[in-house]
Batch of 4 targets.
Target 1
Amino acid sequence: TLIRTEKDLADLSSLLSPQEKERAAKYMVKKAADSFIISRAVLRALLAKYLQIEPRSIVFQQNKYGKLYLDSSLLQFNISHSHGLALFIFALNAPVGIDVEFVRHDYKFTDIAKKFFSKAEVAELFSLPVSQQIQAFFNCWSRKEAFIKALGEGMFSPLDEFSVEVSVSKEGQVRLSYANDDQEGKFWTLEALDPADEYSGAFAVGLAEYTTDFYDFEGLNSFSSKKP
């Protein structure tokens, strides 16, 4: 964990802009406020490493759907956090999206899946053994979230107009297709992640070919390679 004392939290908070500090102060639940402070401070620290500037000097812009970006920079990025785990993704000159979900085994997912998933996804999900369906649901959700975040439209993008592979496999490239135009999905690559026990994750990138490096963030000045 990055936070062991209130001083650790204060150090991270010092990287935030006045507007971000004001936003954090509006959270009614301290845990939610702390999560925002940590994730936004780490994002600033990581971007600063790439751009070779001070974290506090970074000025975020937002598109009309709320996705963060940097003016006059080819570096694109995205962030997701759930139940104490945060994932960050960065790419040069390519749109990216990432999502992580905590797998809640008591979650009542049937109606949600039927409302938001495509017909193909619903059919695949409920064809699986009951014991595998909850993991598959969160796999599907994280993959769809990653893709619409890469598009930059968030939940404004209709979730049932494209389909992702619902397989229980938690790592590697997964299928992505559109109901009306199967070609459009081929401009994107969707990859499943296994970030930690009891979590499901995925990222999307607007490239057919790319290389990836994975790192664990252990502190403001500490990174460790996670995968070759």
Target 2
Amino acid sequence: MSGTTVSPGRRASPPAGPPPTAPRRPAPPRPRRFGIGSLLRTAAILAILFFLLFPIAWLMITAFKPEREVFSASVLFTPSLENFAAVFTGDNSIAPSLVNSVIVSVATTVISVPLALLAAYAFSRYRFPGSRSLMLAIVLTQFIPGVAIAIPFLTVFRDLGMLDTHAALVIVNLSLTVPYNTWLLKGFVDGLPYAIEEAAHIDGCGQVALLWRVITPLAAPGIFVAAVFSFLLSWNEFLFPTFLARVEASTLPVALMTLDRPEGVAWGPMAATGMLVMVPMLIMATLVRRHFAQGMTMGAVK
């Protein structure tokens, strides 16, 4: 039998083949070229940013300008707090409206989120006759314009003697926030595995403790989103406070109307009040933007 003979004491030579090559170095990155398309895209983005940020910048500058320099074309001016002092002093002080806005917004948030969580859990875990139709009806209420229900609310609260009260505004805001929060939180509860609840029941956890110790922590991102939505909607609501509470329970958006006086619009105080309305929203958006995006995506993707 023929074969390759290997002399004793010597290793077989490796089979002939192409010589090994050194690893290739990555090519250097090519310089980025800025063509006409990139320039147009950048110009469009800058134009949109200017369009969005200019009103905010004008509002902030006007709020700190003295009243006599509001319409001055000069960019240089001495910052002053006289507009803020004007809106907090005198007969037209907005301090009561600021307190009313805080009370109504906080009360709406504290009541709306637990109610929506309970409703969302019921729709997610229990199947009863008409549950799908009822959930659809709750979602469809979001498409009803506020103008269509303003007069019925006005009539009901007038007959009940609840006009110009915090309770009336909170009830109206609950009718706006609870349906949306229910739909939002139902998506979160649907995504929670039922095995976790079964394990909690085996460990002796009751239904109330289950909701508080298990469901609430797991649905925390959605609860956070619902709370932010409820607070901001109540804080910015203008239509219903205009109809239902224009004196004792008036809120900041309604207080802005009082600055449009017969002798003319008080632009400086109006800008200062606008800043007071805007600053809490900017602070909240800055602090919670990461959690808000996480909550929205977790509720949308199962």
Target 3
Amino acid sequence: MPHCIDEQAEQIETLLHLPAILAPIFGLILLGLFHTEAKQHTLSSQDASFCHGELEVIYPELDIYECLIIPKSLREQVSQVWKAPQVYFSTAQKKKTYVLVMVDPDAPNRSKPTSAYWRHWLVVDIQGSALKEGQIEGTSLTDYKPPTPPSNSGFHRYQFMLFEQPPDASVSLTEQEEASRGKWDFQAFITSFDLGEPVATLQFLTQNYKD
């Protein structure tokens, strides 16, 4: 009898621990389903080819490591709930510094982007050693603003670009640039600070979550 009681106690204890054991597994399954749903939407060859360089952008329920369309089930979260994502660049050089830019080239819509580029995030002086570990340790020139595409404006591209910052360069915005996020002359900014070509790029597409 004591042996049977012990076995029953062990079975009960195992059942009690099942939720804790299975939770991480279910989390991984859900994450995989979200990514599969995102990939099922068709990207144009131009949009699909934008991403290069192993840049990774991590939101609470979505790990973005390739060009994709945000699935409908997550569009409200990315616009209304989630804060600035974690950004990871595995090949960052520890002794270098970087500039991270996030822009919308489709404001207010892709057919007539009269407000492009819309600056969503700009961080400079990012330490390569931190970026390699998925941390953004630098100077924020423009705080993160989530994607909020207007209703009925179609899909917008949200582009992340990572540049190596030239040694001893003091990257900044002009007073005019600081006054508005929209109509940012992104190319002039790149040229002004000799940033060159980005070492890594990533983008996702999303539309207004109510559409």
Target 4
Amino acid sequence: MAMELVQPGMRFVQYALLLGLFGGFAFHAMTAHAFARTKDRRNWVIFAAMAAPVAVAFSLATDIAAMVGQSPLDLDGAAVASLVGATDFGRAGIVRVLTVVLAWVPALLFRPSRASSSIAASLYGAALGTLAWSGHAAVGEGFAGWLHRLNDAAHLLAAGLWLGAIGWFALLVLRAHAGSDPERTMALAAALKGFAPVGAALVLVVALTGVVNSQMIFGLGQALPVLSTRYGQLLVVKLGLVALMLLCARSNRSTARSIPDAWNAGPAPDQQALQTMRRTLLVELLLAVAVIAVVAWLGLASPMPGDS
């Protein structure tokens, strides 16, 4: 398989796992005291937690292989150790691998609770933040470089919380729809309404940190020339997908507001509202996956006109 496909492919898997695990555990920690209580680990959580160290380690290997112009299978151990130990990129990668391995303890061995989810979310959040040392922010030096990396980490964490919220609400909608329980449906509607300010804050953080990232990577004054590059075109696609996600979120809020009235009117409108939210949340989740795929390519593209 061509290296130009392996590297972004592994970046996609790594980003998807870390964003999903951080967001899922963080959102569960915030809602475990209320309607989102659960006593078991979902199979996908177990699989994702087990797969994360493998994906993170192999993604690090593919990045190193691309830097030295070799296949990941042909890497020399001594050269890899030297590169990892001598660069911030390599040290961040080792921290990322160790952190996701350590996260197995709260993610898989502890009983599901607010405490275990908080610990797991903290570890996966730390691993997610280290990705700022593997993209465009990694090339910055001095105070500006640290500011760029911290901004990039904040961007990733806010995106992870957004993704976690989508996943949890999708799960809760499926539960409410399967159980046909009016009280559970009302609790879901109340949760969606209550999340609206948090969701708005997350979108604001994602937007502001995204603008800062763009300024520090290519300069907003150079936006038009950048649009002629693959980086610029991918960025436009990403922004379009995020805009569609915002439309889905707005639709969900509108549907949630209608649930109490629909419930008073009878069970049929209530179920229709749940079906609408289920479809919209699924679309929003698929759009989020598409955004992650674009980001995986975006981090490898150059914003400079004339570069490949």
